[in-house]
Specification:
homodimer; alpha/beta; Rossmann fold; 6-phosphogluconate dehydrogenase C-terminal fold; Alpha-Beta Plaits; eight-stranded mixed beta sheet; three-stranded antiparallel beta sheet; 11 strands; disordered C terminus; prephenate dehydrogenase (NADP+) activity (chains A, B); oxidoreductase (chains A, B); Prephen_DH (chains A, B); tyrosine biosynthesis (chains A, B)
Chain lengths: 362, 362
């Protein structure tokens, strides 16, 4: 299969790298000849405009994707055209306005849920899509063989394909990704004018809730603008809940119930997020170890854990303020808790001196 | 120094365990005789009401702290009284209303910034306060020797003491802790009624931003109620920013600038959060490794890292949906990047096949 990639940024170049390594013949183009040549030098494919490619992948910035799709449908009358933008409805609508029905059958929108905080060809990775969801939007008119071409490409680079309706996709990503980005950015912005002594009280909770506020404003402005209505719907829901809590903080009769209800609803929402690998959330137990900041400490810790034969499911490092000591939380299956605790203590590691919590042994 | 602890929940019992291990004579009381005895059985001290303790620590639920402080000031006319509640102004005001000036000099509010998602004596740890900030609120009337008693206790259990004004404290924790808790809970609550296929698109960003929504609604309702005015101020600031973004999502002229400005302010706020150990954020480079979910994989990885002599500053595990493969991001000082990449490759680990990013080598 010959694949032509238009746009050699992070996603386009990563896709080129991945497909080239799996034997696909990949051609590349970009408005910036430098960027296209860089991608080619990295091994993402050959800079060329092919006569008759099987599939064309549009990986330009989101705000020009629709126009580039329309152009591609005309330029290559036999090719299947797909794109990798993170919004789907607005693009489909724009493409519909400028194409005839038969042409439209050759366009299949898709969205690999992958990215990095860095951008550009230079940040590309052949394995960027490995183990990530890749949403494909088809309908009853989509020719089966064209749909299979797009699915094959996604699977070739290791992604996990999900078939979704464009409206459903846009509404879902607004809720699980776009609105959380806005809220995290707004929450982080509240720190800008704080005295340093106040910011010094920040704990791991604030670090976690604002981590994605590090994202690129330019790219995210395009994403939010492209899914504006759906994002606004979720943000209005959030504002409604926020208004109720703000009102309740006047502490009138009934206030406590409103506040507690909001917090309990948060518990319920969290319980819906799938665990590792999309399975139902698994119950792991955590074992805490205190570590100092000396070179090699974490490496020694994990060497010892390796010797114990215990599989670590997840790791969290807690950063403390003002002291050169931290703690590491290790998630393990319940059956391994005792082996791990005893083994680490025997190796001289400092663990909390708590009595064993019966709930932690169930 | 004789220390009497009123309230043997997570904080009181943890403090008793820590102080007892450092040779303090600790007595305990709790409204629940079972809870007090459990704490004593765990080694937190002796269940007793002493005649003349040096320091009394009030560690009851936040909504009764003020009354218990007032009672304690009367019961023990020579003792220094402190508390560990996470709000300080409302408690100080309530205590002031019910005590004379001279009595008030014996009360010094404090707030160890430590906790767990679990609660009760059974979840206590002698090292809970290790390397955590412990805020102490004194004023010009506070007798120096009493202040030193509270500071000594905090330092005995390994905490890092910060002297702050109660109003400043409450305003700061509202911004870095209480309001983020409300916002994270509200954000997680938006998932309650979502179809499962939509929640399946959740990535690490959503997991991070909503992690603290797992917290206990009962305890947090008391905390928010006790700092209601300050929390409402921050939530109103957040609502103002949210309103601006919602309006901008109508996509009128000027909208893009508003949206981009919000995201950029988020970048600025994040940059203010101190790094590891309260230092200025350090620049580490990240090295990504792909790992499968087989038992022992992470342990083998860290054994290999240990053999390379590379110090790992931080670790992030990325969970993928639907595929039994994940990636681990290792933060290391720039000087160790090459050693780590080369050493891991030689040991057969799969790393992204990207060209080296010149920015990552600076």
């Amino acid at each position: 299969m010959n694949v032509h990639i238009v746009g050699t940024g992070l996603l386009g170049t990563s896709l080129g790298l991945g497909l080239s390594r799996h034997g696909y013949r990949v051609t590349l183009e970009d408005l910036s000849p430098t960027s296209a040549q860089l991608a080619a030098d990295m091994g993402a494919g050959e800079v060329a405009r092919p006569e008759d490619p099987d599939v064309v992948v549009i990986a330009t910035p989101p705000d020009v994707v629709a126009q580039v799709i329309v152009d591609a449908l005309r330029t290559w009358p036999n090719a299947t055209i797909t794109d990798v933008a993170s919004v789907k409805t607005a693009i489909l609508d724009a493409v519909k306005q400028h194409t005839r029905d038969r042409e439209l059958d050759r366009y299949i929108g898709s969205h690999p849920m992958a990215g990095r905080e860095k951008s550009g060809a230079i940040a590309a990775r052949a394995d960027l899509f490995m183990a990530r969801p890749w949403v494909v939007c088809s309908d009853e008119d989509t020719p089966q063989e064209r749909l299979e071409q797009v699915v094959t490409i996604a699977q070739a680079v290791g992604a996990s394909v999900m078939h979704l309706d464009p409206l459903f996709h846009d509404s879902a990503v607004a809720r699980v990704s776009h609105a959380p980005q806005v809220v995290a950015s707004i929450m982080a912005a509240q720190l800008v004018d704080m005295p340093s002594e106040g910011v010094a009280l920040a704990g791991q909770g604030l670090r976690d809730t604002t981590r994605i506020a590090d994202s690129d404003p330019g790219l995210w402005t395009q994403i939010l603008a492209g899914n504006a209505a759906e994002v606004a719907t979720v943000l209005r829901d959030i504002r409604g809940d926020l208004d109720r809590v703000i009102d309740a903080l006047d502490m009138r009769p009934g206030s406590l119930r409103t506040i507690a209800g909001s917090l309990a609803a948060g518990n319920d929402g969290r319980a819906r997020i799938p665990g590792k690998h999309g399975l139902a959330p698994a119950t792991y137990e955590t074992v805490t170890v205190y570590v100092d900041d000396a070179p090699g400490t974490l490496s020694r810790l994990f060497t010892d854990i390796g010797d114990l034969g215990v599989n670590i499911e997840d790791i969290r490092i807690d950063h403390a303020t003002g002291v050169k000591l931290g703690s590491v939380e290790l998630s393990v299956v319940p059956a391994h808790v005792q082996v791990l605790i005893q083994g680490l203590r025997e190796n001289g590691w400092r663990l909390p001196e708590q009595a064993l919590d019966p709930k932690e042994e169930k």
